Amino acid sequence: MLSVYSKNKNDGALKRSEISSLIYPLYSSRLDQYDHSNFAMENKAMTSITITRPDDWHIHLRDGEQLVDTVRDVSRYMGRAIIMPNLVPPVTNTQLALSYYDRIKAAKPQGQFEPLMVLYLTDKTSAADIKEAHATGKVVAAKLYPAGATTNSDSGVTSIENMAPVFAAMEEVGMLLLVHGEVTDSSIDIFDREKIFIETKLKKLVTDFPTLKVVLEHITTADAVEFVNQAGDNIAATITAHHLLYNRNHMLAGGIRPHFYCLPILKRNIHQDALVKAATSGSKKFFLGTDSAPHMKDKKEAACGCAGSYTAHAAIELYAEAFELAGALDKLEAFASHNGPDFYNLPRNTDTITLEKASWDVPDFYPLGGDKVVPIRAGEQIEWQVK
């Protein structure tokens, strides 16, 4: 199989062992600047940690026969998850959202897993659509995709300014707005699109609707961290595990690794450092959202591959690695289990999970609706596992 890492020592690409040896020392040295000295000794000796059952506040489950596999992975230890609506066709109204909810439940999630549904905003979405969806109790948010920003976003919003009546209705009923924060102008460098979106679109939106709850999703830049920190308590952000653990060098240096390619794209290490500092700061404004996005193996390992990284197979384990490297395992529970439900005005989960410091081998692939998905850390080890 074509691997994310090279197995041929003569092809110029870094081998798996070389990648692993590079990621952690460099990452740890950069984190020396963070004031976690009070916890570092304790964390190094920590062999298990018990936390309130976490939730995933941003995940892609896809549809059809793939649901059995994606629902299995997310429901192993997540109590709830915000389900992204960018299906084909997208989840644009209440009927479609409730139908999708039923299909997810029919996939037989483990435990008491509850999907939290989201409307896909289009230029045709009305205030009445928002109020109808909110009244169900199952649709908790609406998603703003700038048209063309990411996978299956072609039906998204072409003019944020024209959505004022919809945002006003959301503000009125208390429905959250989830934002993919990138501009879509092809003349703007892909590494700058989040920063430009915040400056040209998001700042005005939150000023115009000062009580609208907004989640800036899967943030990737120091600019986004600064914006969220300086905004009011109605503004929050999700952060993925892969943006905490990796930067664009891991995707591009020594050979292209397509399974690290996602949108928003991995940024340089100074932005990675800012994300780690935000996630481990203890701030209630940041919480777990994996943005786990499965694509079939041949759609990723292609001349023009799809954007999305699959992490649902080991989400909380990967976050535990990131927090341990930052000397901040004591901050993991708030980030993974408390801040999200608190922001959504939902009760925290009442049961717990236990993570043990015990390495395990990640398979080269997982089943995905009769095909295969290559996960993050394929063919390598993860240092933590759920007991």
TrEMBL record:
<feature type="binding site">
    <location>
        <begin position="60"/>
        <end position="62"/>
    </location>
    <ligand>
        <name>substrate</name>
    </ligand>
</feature>
<dbReference type="GO" id="GO:0008270">
    <property type="term" value="F:zinc ion binding"/>
</dbReference>
<dbReference type="GO" id="GO:0005829">
    <property type="term" value="C:cytosol"/>
</dbReference>
<feature type="binding site">
    <location>
        <position position="263"/>
    </location>
    <ligand>
        <name>substrate</name>
    </ligand>
</feature>
<feature type="binding site">
    <location>
        <position position="180"/>
    </location>
    <ligand>
        <name>substrate</name>
    </ligand>
</feature>
<keyword id="KW-0479">Metal-binding</keyword>
<dbReference type="Pfam" id="PF01979">
    <property type="entry name" value="Amidohydro_1"/>
</dbReference>
<comment type="subunit">
    <text>Homodimer.</text>
</comment>
<dbReference type="InterPro" id="IPR032466">
    <property type="entry name" value="Metal_Hydrolase"/>
</dbReference>
<feature type="binding site">
    <location>
        <position position="180"/>
    </location>
    <ligand>
        <name>Zn(2+) 2</name>
    </ligand>
</feature>
<feature type="modified residue" description="N6-carboxylysine">
    <location>
        <position position="143"/>
    </location>
</feature>
<feature type="domain" description="Amidohydrolase-related">
    <location>
        <begin position="56"/>
        <end position="354"/>
    </location>
</feature>
<protein>
    <recommendedName>
        <fullName>Dihydroorotase</fullName>
        <ecNumber>3.5.2.3</ecNumber>
    </recommendedName>
</protein>
<dbReference type="InterPro" id="IPR002195">
    <property type="entry name" value="Dihydroorotase_CS"/>
</dbReference>
<feature type="binding site">
    <location>
        <position position="218"/>
    </location>
    <ligand>
        <name>Zn(2+) 2</name>
    </ligand>
</feature>
<keyword id="KW-0378">Hydrolase</keyword>
<dbReference type="InterPro" id="IPR004721">
    <property type="entry name" value="DHOdimr"/>
</dbReference>
<comment type="pathway">
    <text>Pyrimidine metabolism; UMP biosynthesis via de novo pathway; (S)-dihydroorotate from bicarbonate: step 3/3.</text>
</comment>
<feature type="binding site">
    <location>
        <position position="60"/>
    </location>
    <ligand>
        <name>Zn(2+) 1</name>
    </ligand>
</feature>
<feature type="binding site">
    <location>
        <position position="86"/>
    </location>
    <ligand>
        <name>substrate</name>
    </ligand>
</feature>
<feature type="binding site">
    <location>
        <position position="291"/>
    </location>
    <ligand>
        <name>Zn(2+) 1</name>
    </ligand>
</feature>
<dbReference type="GO" id="GO:0006207">
    <property type="term" value="P:'de novo' pyrimidine nucleobase biosynthetic process"/>
</dbReference>
<feature type="binding site">
    <location>
        <position position="307"/>
    </location>
    <ligand>
        <name>substrate</name>
    </ligand>
</feature>
<dbReference type="InterPro" id="IPR006680">
    <property type="entry name" value="Amidohydro-rel"/>
</dbReference>
<comment type="similarity">
    <text>Belongs to the metallo-dependent hydrolases superfamily. DHOase family. Class II DHOase subfamily.</text>
</comment>
<dbReference type="GO" id="GO:0044205">
    <property type="term" value="P:'de novo' UMP biosynthetic process"/>
</dbReference>
<keyword id="KW-0665">Pyrimidine biosynthesis</keyword>
<feature type="binding site">
    <location>
        <position position="295"/>
    </location>
    <ligand>
        <name>substrate</name>
    </ligand>
</feature>
<dbReference type="GO" id="GO:0004151">
    <property type="term" value="F:dihydroorotase activity"/>
</dbReference>
<feature type="binding site" description="via carbamate group">
    <location>
        <position position="143"/>
    </location>
    <ligand>
        <name>Zn(2+) 1</name>
    </ligand>
</feature>
<feature type="binding site">
    <location>
        <position position="58"/>
    </location>
    <ligand>
        <name>Zn(2+) 1</name>
    </ligand>
</feature>
<feature type="active site">
    <location>
        <position position="291"/>
    </location>
</feature>
<keyword id="KW-0862">Zinc</keyword>
<comment type="function">
    <text>Catalyzes the reversible cyclization of carbamoyl aspartate to dihydroorotate.</text>
</comment>
<feature type="binding site" description="via carbamate group">
    <location>
        <position position="143"/>
    </location>
    <ligand>
        <name>Zn(2+) 2</name>
    </ligand>
</feature>
